[in-house]
Amino acid sequence: MRLNIHDRFNQELPADPVLTPSRRQVTEAAFSFVTPRVPSAPRLRHAVTEVAEMLGLAPTDLNGDTFRRVFSGGEVIAGTRPYAMCYGGHQFGNWAGQLGDGRAINLAEVEHRGQHWTLQLKGAGETPYSRTADGLAVLRSSVREHLCSEAMHHLGVPTTRSLCLLTTGDQVLRDVMYDGNPEMETGAVVCRVAASFIRFGSFEILAARNDLATLRQLADYTIRHHYPEIQAENQADTKASYGHFFHAVCQRTLTMIVHWQRVGFVHGVMNTDNMSIHGDTIDYGPYGWLEGFDPDWTPNTTDRSHRRYQFGNQPKIALWNLLQLANALYPLVGDAAPFQAALQEYQDDFSREYTNMQASKIGLTHANQAANEADEELISQLDTVLQLTETDMTIFFRLLADVRKSSNVSAGRDFLAPVIDAFYDPESLTDEMIEQWRAWFSLYLQRLNQSEESDAMRRERMNRVNPKYVLRNYIAQLAIDAADQGDDSLIAELYELLRDPYAEQPERQKWFAKRPEWARHKVGCSMLSCSS
Ligand SMILES: Nc1ncnc2c1ncn2[C@@H]1O[C@H](COP(=O)(O)OP(=O)(O)OP(=O)(O)O)[C@@H](O)[C@H]1O
Ligand SMILES: [Mg+2]
């Protein structure tokens, strides 16, 4: 197994001089060197050939002993020095001080085909940032992280990738529902891959400590390697470059959030330590997928009372998080204007991009123009009717593509036939609800009939925007239950399914189904805790 190692982060930025994993505050440093824990009996459970190829690995490497040892933490790649990054963060709206990679360990950076990738193990043991926890991860949460990273990538959502999932052979104690019933679970490690794992909190911790020298070093480093176009344009004016950097992060974050809302993804813990400066989705913890279309829904039990991170709040929370990043970068510039301008632009652009995305989900085209008022009305009314009775988001939008321009909505319920499978209980639709749906469909059909486009063409366009298959909460749980019994076939099957989420895949139609009743209140299917 050969990787083209080209480390930069741990070469160019200041290191913590202490080399033990003793828990501590780490100052004037961007990271600490650490050694991954050696697992007792590592076993490869699933690997992604496509990510391996992206890194320059051969498919045959995946089955080798070296691969198993390196990506379970048992062997350090020659010439590399693994490290944990120092960062802080705002958790649920409050400043939490130093957090850092408590169980993530960066192995190395790899250069392949002109691109740089950082390899990071999650769950490979203690670091100076582990605080009161053990540095480990369990199979349950690792299956979720591994499958969802790849599913999101194939949905077209910016995300960290996942190279592989291994179990360590060690047991890990976890209290899943924080109710005083801890149990032993199977330990696991995932290898994540991203351009870098620099987070909003990486800057916040340095600003909070007023360590402007390291803050500037980190900002310069990030711009130099990850936003080189900004450096090129602002050679003579580094202050301006920090503002441009912030602007670029705002725009990438915006893109990521619009995608989340498009596919019905709820992150669950949008703390600033879980926000990537690349606009990648990072930290697949208590995330979930909207099943019934309910903007108030959050899967995270820790957030049950405040619902800060519910689906409908995600755009606003991203803005709040960006404001924290602006505060952290401000001392480097000393002028609030560029930050305010970028935040304002985020809001303006967001509302336009969001409406356009929603319009595309119902098949409207605007030939590069913003949606007009009538279309906005159509979109907002849909939001209301979707919530009349429990209606599956993914299934509804996918089936909506089957509606014909010639449909007759004047009487009866038949006009709902194309989308009827999206309703959890079609019997619960009252006459009044039917009339609301009828009103919406009449407007919708009027709008569709303003266009010359054929039903087939519109359907094709809509099916590229509305996935057929997403990693429903209960589906992930089925894969976890099987993996817990040693059977990884469902992980492999779901990985294949989710590689092509917009395709019909008739042979896998059983996964195009509403959440079954048994999963409605089952832990892991509708409620997720942060215990992972
Ligand atoms: N089992 C654990 N051992 C040590 N530290 C942990 C553990 N679980 C979480 N942490 C730390 O607690 C903080 C918040 O955790 P959070 O759940 O956001 O992250 P995470 O799931 O561990 O990781 P990441 O953000 O890297 O995906 C982070 O500093 C994280 O490293
Ligand atoms: Mg995290």
Bound molecules: adenosine-5'-triphosphate, magnesium ion
What is the alpha-carbon Rg in Å? 24 Å
Basic shape: globular
Average predicted confidence as pLDDT: 96
Order of helices and strands: HEEEHHEEEEEEHEEHHHHEEHHHHHHHH
In total, how many domains does the architecture comprise? Answer: 3
Helix content: 25-40%
The unreliable regions are: none
Q: Quote the distance from N terminus to C terminus.
A: 31 Å
Describe the sheet with the most strands: 6 strands, antiparallel
Strand content: 5-15%
The helix tally amounts to 16
> Total number of β-strand segments?
13
EC number: 2.7.7.-, 2.7.7.108
Family: Belongs to the SELO family.
InterPro entries: SelO (IPR003846)
Cofactor: Mg(2+); Mn(2+)
